[in-house]
Design goal:
alpha+beta; three-stranded antiparallel beta sheet
Length: 110
């Protein structure tokens, strides 16, 4: 399946990319972000967004076939948007290292 790099936004500020992620299943990933299984910072933001009468949307930023390329694009996108003051819901200080850390955990290296 294709890989996607995406941003989560609120309909109240659709150009403010609050979270950057990577997935091969956008619908399932969005559902996970909207559920109780989401990271606390994301879960709290989702709750506040919905409580204020707005929606959380997923915006596709990039699409490709290769997982490693997608993870590299995710790292770079997090860094680029964090430098602009966005991607503030990405954990570990919005650093480029976060996406690589997740990949290391998935491979059993952490």
């Amino acid at each position: 399946p294709p890989m996607y790099v995406y941003a989560l936004v609120s309909t109240s500020a659709p150009l403010a990319y609050r979270y950057i992620g990577c997935t091969d299943s956008p619908h399932q990933r969005l559902s996970a972000h909207l559920s109780e299984s989401a990271a606390k910072k994301v879960r709290d933001w989702v709750r506040e967004t919905l409580r204020s009468g707005h929606l959380v949307q997923m915006v596709e930023l990039w699409r490709g076939a290769d997982r490693l390329e997608a993870e590299e694009m995710e790292r770079q996108t997090i860094a680029d948007y964090a430098a602009l003051g966005m991607a503030d819901l990405n954990v570990h200080g919005n650093t480029v290292a976060y996406a690589g850390h997740r990949r290391a955990i998935r491979r059993g290296a952490a």
